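Lay summary. Proteins are chains of building blocks that fold into shapes, and those shapes determine what they do. In this project we predict the shape from the chain. Here is one chain we studied, written as its sequence of building blocks.
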Amino acid sequence: MKQGLWCCQSLILLGLSLGGLTACDAPESLSGMPVPNAPQRQDNVQQLAMGKKIYLENCSGCHGAQGQGDANWHKKDADGNYPAPPLNGSGHTWHHSLAMLEETITNGSPNGKGKMPAWKGKLNQQEIQATMAWFQSLWPQPVYDAWYEMQQRGK
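And here is the predicted shape, written in a compact code that computers can read:
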């Protein structure tokens, strides 16, 4: 009985230790602290309207009308690819820089990563940027602030 109790206590301590380590690297805004000097999001009404229109016409079939993504976006499918992730701030998209997001939209998913088609030649850079501005507008403010902070740290 004592050995079982010791084992449980050890696992709890290990879990707390690991949780503390991950919390140290959490962006400030997700840990409840505001991000200083975070800029306001894109609020160009015309750009956001264009981005929403482009998104609904070209992206919503896979990513969902509100950017919710596939329910199993984090698990490889039968083809060995990841389904469309959420773009609304509830998935990992906010962990990427605008340059990386634009690269993925322009050239598609790298082999074995997903089914994202290349939009090069179908959408121009202005249309891609408008689409990114629109789906970023879906992100909750703490997620946007955390994304901004990560960009400032170069992550």
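What the prediction tells us: The chain is about 50% helix and 0% strand.
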